[in-house]
């Protein structure tokens, strides 16, 4: 008994018993993200995006030791020096792309698969690329196990996009690049949008929203400061 009390005290959070506990925490998180958008000065997030977030069980996308923190509005470690993004940032990036039913989306940086799962609830299909083999494998297994049939993943360098499935209605890059990869611009449909953090490795980066006009021009909007792990690879 003493050992049990000690472990509860040391861990500092109650054990989460079942899906109902997680559902309640998830609903609170979605409310927090909704309010946070107001503080951050964003336009309100669309209900569809928040509802999609409310359906994805974030606690199933984090390592066992992080489960108790899964519904806190912050990034968490997922191993290999990588993170699952902060829920607010996931909502912001998803919302900026204005996902629609028939869209085909490319994600660069599968990580845990969480962002892909949120997006999958809003569009026709998500193609997602991860450069770390262990993460690509575990995300692919997880997404299949959880029934995300409209997400296809692969191991590779997302800098070069995924030519076979291009052009994309939207592209979401979840690692910080030093510049916008030209292959990704090429693989964006006219009228399509891309969100990407751009900047140096050990500093905050700028989240950019790019839109390709019907004429093929790129219009760029600066959204705000963010902090992401770097886009790696040989490019
Ligand atoms: N979207 C992820 C999620 O929901 O868990 C979080 C992504 S994490 C912030 C960034 C991911 O990008 C890492 O898993 C990292 O290995 C991956 N990454 C970095 N460079 C990459 C590249 N060139 N191509 C594909 N993935 C890359």
Question: What would a concise description of this structure say?
Answer:
The protein has helices at residues 2-11, 19-39, 47-55, 87-96, 114-120, 133-145, 182-186, and strands spanning 76-79, 82-84, 104-108, 125-130, 151-155, 168-173, 188-198, 205-212, 218-226. It has 235 residues and is of the alpha/beta class.
Keywords:
two-stranded antiparallel sheet; alpha/beta; globular; seven-stranded mixed β-sheet; Rossmann fold; 32% helix; disordered N terminus; 7 helices; 235 residues; binds S-adenosylmethionine
How would you sum up this structure, described in words?
With 235 residues, this protein is of the alpha/beta class. The chain has a domain at 74-226: Rossmann fold (3-Layer(aba) Sandwich), CATH 3.40.50.150. It contains 7 helices and 9 strands, in the order αααββαβαβαββαβββ. It has helices at 2-11, 19-39, 47-55, 87-96, 114-120, 133-145, 182-186; strands at 76-79, 82-84, 104-108, 125-130, 151-155, 168-173, 188-198, 205-212, 218-226. Strands 5-4-3-6-7-8-9 form a 7-stranded mixed sheet. Strands 1-2 form a two-stranded antiparallel sheet. A hairpin with a 2-residue loop joins strand 1 and strand 2 (82-84). Helix 2 (19-39) packs across helix 4. The longest helix has 21 residues, at 19-39. The radius of gyration is 18 Å and the shape is globular. The chain starts with a helix and ends in a 9-residue tail after the last strand. 42% of the residues are buried. Mean pLDDT is 92; it is low at 1-12. S-adenosylmethionine binds at residues 82-85, 108-109, 111-112, 114-115, 129-132, 135, 157-159, 174-175, 228-229, 231-233.
């Amino acid at each position: 008994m003493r050992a049990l009390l000690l472990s509860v005290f040391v861990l500092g959070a109650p054990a989460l018993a079942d899906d109902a506990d997680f559902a309640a925490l998830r609903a609170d998180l979605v409310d927090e993200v909704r309010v946070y958008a107001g503080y951050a000065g964003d336009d309100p997030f669309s209900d569809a995006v928040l509802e999609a977030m409310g359906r994805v069980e974030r606690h199933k996308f984090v390592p066992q030791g992080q489960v108790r923190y899964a519904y806190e509005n912050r990034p968490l470690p997922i191993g290999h020096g990588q993170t699952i993004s902060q829920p607010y940032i996931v909502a912001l990036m998803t919302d900026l792309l204005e996902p629609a039913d028939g869209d085909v989306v490319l994600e660069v940086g599968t990580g845990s698969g969480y962002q892909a799962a949120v997006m999958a609830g809003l569009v026709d299909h998500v193609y997602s690329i991860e450069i770390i083999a262990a993460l690509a494998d575990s995300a692919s297994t997880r997404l299949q196990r959880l029934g995300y049939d409209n997400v296809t993943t692969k191991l590779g360098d997302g800098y070069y996009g995924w030519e076979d499935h291009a052009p994309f209605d939207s592209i979401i890059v979840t690692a910080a690049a030093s510049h916008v990869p030209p292959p990704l611009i090429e693989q964006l449909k006219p009228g399509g949008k891309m969100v990407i953090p751009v900047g140096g490795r050990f500093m905050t980066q700028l989240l950019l929203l790019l839109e390709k006009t019907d004429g093929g021009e790129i219009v760029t909007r600066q959204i705000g400061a963010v902090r992401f792990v770097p886009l790696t690879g040989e490019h």
